[in-house]
């Protein structure tokens, strides 16, 4: 096996609910640190896949190995953490109680709780009962519990749910740091804008099949221009973008490049004033639309 | 150990166990207060009880004396003479009760029964059977020998006897059932509220978690039993004058031998403790097997309360593990706790092994 031990290997993983096939002979091998996003519409089976990986759900066929061990071996959880939804928390216990439990199970040093609490920004409410926590505070606690033992593989089920913008920024920052410190992170999400901010490696789950895509190869930039003479301007620049269209008084230019300089120079030469300009970058969203079609987007 | 403490903390923080323990202490206190209030009426009832004999004997004596006036008879004269002694001795007993001279009360009561037996032999009426008088005499002799007062076992405030009284209420199928239902919900609730998924994603086996859970049940059960026992004894000790020889109180007579109160409590705790282990192991097993509070409650009530009712109403007894749920009844009826303890242990181990093996075969939640 050597140095490059596979962190997560799914081999022909199959899961059915009665007659409905949710995971169809899925193969996946992840051996390096980084962040992978698991994307798909609601009810497609993202949580089912994560639950199968962590043995919370029995799969019907295939095998799952984490850090070289079967997922049915509880020792895998020495190096695997799973951030689930907040129903796993005990409302009548404090955040500290939860973290202490994880610390004791993993036999971690005493100061580890304080370190992590400061890191995720929850030291002020650590000793409060979880029943009094807001949704965002619960997400912070779940994250703290997941990262407390410094696992090599971290699975996160909708970690950005219920987070306010500053918490979401903090969460993204932490995930980025964990990945750069050597952790392999798989997070499920249906917030595609957030996905684009944390990774370009996306696992699309559709029709019980998993497809790994590097969204950086599919990144699209759409510029929205409001100009003084829009019809004339549209005729001038329609050849520049891969796709250019005129809609509701705006010219939309879709391109792979980040540079709009040739277009702006041309408009300037022709004396057309650019009144307003906006840029939208889309990676996974474009792909998502291609894969799932617009009418399936239930986000 | 820290994991066991965490489980125990969960039980306590969920409040139900705490409330149950507090409720048990309040119930013990109320029982003691009732018994304290009833002490005067205990004496009054004793006096009423003996006064009844005074009335009966006096009426019979009056009638016999009238008969003697018309028809002298040496036999009837002797009966009247002994009857007069009975009358006088009943009054002495009543006086002793009133003056709270407990040893005098027992001595004169025994003398009364000796005379009453003679009186009955001469054709007099005394509304106690010879067997009953002999039983009370033996008890009184035992108490006199040990220098102990006679207690009403249901209304006692004497520390050890009161402790036994409390245990006789606690160590029953219904006492165990109340504790079981509280603890059972901590297993099924984790499945219903999905908290168990947190534990199942930690690096220890599910069987180990189950065993830790069972350990927390047993600690909670032991704690409840200890709190109940200690609160009963402490309360009674604080408010009554302790007797040096109280542990030797002859609690009951079985096959000519006196069972002392200390032995009753000791054996009751041993048998009750083991019965508690069996009940909690059983509850733990059905909780993990059915994972539904409602279903588990129904099964627990059916088996534990049903078993207790069966024993109370004279159902199968000897090899029935549920008979031990009525600990006091079992102790007095059988007074051979050793084999019962082993039987309960055996049943608990069988349930434990089946439960542990079955959880190891399961995947998913």
Q: Which structural class fits the helix and strand makeup of chain B?
A: mainly alpha
> Can you give the helix content of chain B as a percent range?
over 70%
Task: Provide the residue-averaged pLDDT of chain A.
Answer: 86
Multimeric status of the protein: heterodimer
Number of strands of chain A: 14
Helix/strand/pairing class of chain A, anyone?
A: alpha/beta
Largest sheet of chain A: 6 strands, mixed
Largest sheet data of chain B: 2 strands, antiparallel
- The topology string of helices and strands of chain B comes to HHHHHHHHHHEEHHHH
Order of adjacent strands in the largest pleated sheet of chain B:
1-2
Largest interface: A-B, 28 and 23 residues
Note the gap between the termini of chain A: 41 Å
Low-confidence stretches of chain B: none
Shape of chain A: globular
- The total count of helices of chain A amounts to 9
Beta-sheet strand percentage of chain B? under 5%
- Give start-end ranges of low-pLDDT stretches of chain A: 295-299
Taking Cα atoms only, what radius of gyration of chain A do you get, to the nearest Å? Answer: 23 Å
Number of strands of chain B: 2
**Helix proportion range of chain A:** 25-40%
- The H/E string of chain A reads EEEHEEEHHHEHEHEEEHEEHEH
């Amino acid at each position: 096996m050597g140095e490059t031990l596979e962190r997560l290997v799914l081999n022909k993983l199959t899961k059915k609910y009665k007659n409905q096939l949710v995971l169809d002979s899925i193969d996946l091998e992840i051996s390096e640190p980084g962040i992978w996003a698991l994307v798909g519409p609601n009810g497609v089976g993202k949580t089912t896949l994560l639950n199968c990986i962590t043995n919370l759900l029995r799969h019907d066929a295939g095998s799952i190995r984490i850090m070289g061990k079967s997922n049915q071996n509880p020792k895998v959880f020495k190096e695997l953490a799973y951030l689930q939804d907040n129903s796993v928390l005990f409302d009548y216990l404090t955040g500290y109680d939860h973290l202490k439990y994880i610390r004791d199970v993993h036999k971690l040093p005493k100061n580890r709780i304080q370190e992590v609490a400061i890191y995720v920004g929850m030291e002020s409410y650590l000793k409060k009962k979880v029943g009094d926590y807001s949704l965002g505070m619960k997400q912070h606690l779940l994250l703290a519990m997941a990262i407390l033992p410094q696992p090599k593989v971290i699975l996160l089920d909708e970690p950005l749910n219920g987070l306010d913008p500053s918490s979401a920024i903090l969460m993204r920052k932490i995930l980025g740091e964990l990945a750069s410190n050597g952790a392999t992170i798989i997070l499920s999400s249906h917030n595609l804008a957030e996905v684009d901010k944390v990774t370009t490696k996306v696992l699309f789950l559709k029709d019980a099949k998993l497809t790994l895509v590097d969204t950086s190869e599919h990144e699209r930039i759409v510029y929205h221009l409001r100009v003084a003479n829009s019809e004339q301007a549209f005729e001038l620049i329609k050849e520049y973008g891969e796709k250019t269209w005129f809609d509701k008084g705006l010219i939309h230019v879709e391109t792979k490049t980040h540079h709009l300089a040739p277009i702006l120079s041309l408009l300037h030469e022709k004396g057309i004033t650019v009144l307003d300009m906006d840029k939208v970058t889309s990676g996974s969203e474009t792909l998502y639309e291609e894969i799932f079609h617009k009418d399936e987007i239930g986000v | 150990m820290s994991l066991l403490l965490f489980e125990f903390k969960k039980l306590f923080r969920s409040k139900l166990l705490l409330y149950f323990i507090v409720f048990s202490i309040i119930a013990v206190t109320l029982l003691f207060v009732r018994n304290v209030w009833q002490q005067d009426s205990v004496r009054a009832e004793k006096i009423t009880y003996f006064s009844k004999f005074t009335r009966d004997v006096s009426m019979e004596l009056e009638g016999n004396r009238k008969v003697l006036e018309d028809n002298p008879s040496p036999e009837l004269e002797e009966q009247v003479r002994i009857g007069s002694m009975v009358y006088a001795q009943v009054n002495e007993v009543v006086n002793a009760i009133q003056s709270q001279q407990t040893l005098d009360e027992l001595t004169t009561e025994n003398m009364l029964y000796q005379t009453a037996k003679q009186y009955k032999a001469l054709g007099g009426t005394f509304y106690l059977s010879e067997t009953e008088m002999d039983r009370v005499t033996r008890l009184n002799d035992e108490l006199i020998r040990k220098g102990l007062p006679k207690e009403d076992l249901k209304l006692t405030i004497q520390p050890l006897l009161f402790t036994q009284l409390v245990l006789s209420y606690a160590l029953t199928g219904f006492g165990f059932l109340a504790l079981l239902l509280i603890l059972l919900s901590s297993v099924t609730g984790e499945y219903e509220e999905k908290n168990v998924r947190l534990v199942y994603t930690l690096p220890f086996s599910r069987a180990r978690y189950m065993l830790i859970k069972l350990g927390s049940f047993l600690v909670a059960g032991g704690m409840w039993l200890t709190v109940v026992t200690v609160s009963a004894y402490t309360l009674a000790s604080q408010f009554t004058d302790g007797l040096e020889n109280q542990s030797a109180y002859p609690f009951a007579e079985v096959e000519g031998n006196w069972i002392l109160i200390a032995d009753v409590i000791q054996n009751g705790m041993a048998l009750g403790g083991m019965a508690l282990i069996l009940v909690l192991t059983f509850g733990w097993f059905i909780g993990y097997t059915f994972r539904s509070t409602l279903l588990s409650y129904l099964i627990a009530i059916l088996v534990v309360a049903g078993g207790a009712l069966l024993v109370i109403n004279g159902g199968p007894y000897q090899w029935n593990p549920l008979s031990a749920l009525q600990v006091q009844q079992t102790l007095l009826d059988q007074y051979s706790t050793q084999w019962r303890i082993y039987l309960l242990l055996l049943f608990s181990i069988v349930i434990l092994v089946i439960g542990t093996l079955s959880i190891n075969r399961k995947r998913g939640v």
